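Why does residue order matter? Because the sequence determines the fold. Keep that principle in mind as you read this record.
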Amino acid sequence: MSTLLSLQNVAHFLLGKKMIIAKSERDLDKMRGVGELIADVREVLRGMVAPGISTLELNDAADKMIRDAGAIPTFIGYHGFPYAICASVNDEVVHGFSKKIPLVEGDIVSLDMAATFNGFVGDTAMTLPVGEISDELRQLIRVTEECLDAGIAKSRANGRVGDISAAVQQHAEKFGYGIVRDYTGHGIGRQMHEAPQIPNHGRAGTKEKIRVGYCFAIEPMLNLGSADVRTLSDKWTVVTLDGKASAHAEHTIAVTADGPEILTLTREQKRQLRAKASVSATS
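Structure:
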């Protein structure tokens, strides 16, 4: 879940006064555990998305999976948010409410979710096609995921938070997409929102220095049209001002001495990543 605009003035003050919390190896082991847990939930929801299913059904499935694993759906009750996931359809950018309305062929849906387990939080998001979608929307989703990858790649010790922001911005701007500026990524750990804020736009070499043990939730949000957004009367759902589609992708990552480690992957995804790295190292 992105840092809320309605709280940004407070957050700028509070986060500006707070130190970024480096995690110990014991902390990181717990973050790996909750990361795998919420990644498993995400992948089950990925397989459920199809024409005819409702976002409320997806929400209820996520809620049950998280609780059955002995964890807590972090979003429920967070500043009053009423659902286990944020489900944002088409022009909804983030913080969308789950509904009984079935998804239809050609929609895209962003699913953002978090769990708290053993005292730590894992936060992840994806945007998925509902059945067959236009090439324009497919590219928007792909580029959003590429922006996430670019930001993760810059999450290295002795770099700067601005390096992450700049990498996301530079890739998004190649395609002319609107980069949502009112909501940001964030530090994460025992709390869902910790220092620092991580905007999806910025200048390399600026902001806080990155150190081993820092954990970030990096989450690009790109609009097909303008970057401008507004909040609906429910005081949560954020939509694009021009009514064009939006996409969102997020991982929780840890900064290690060997580079960034994506925590919100399933065990199988981690195994595949290790196998790919091994092949690359020997080729």
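Confidence is low (pLDDT under 50) at residues 5-16.
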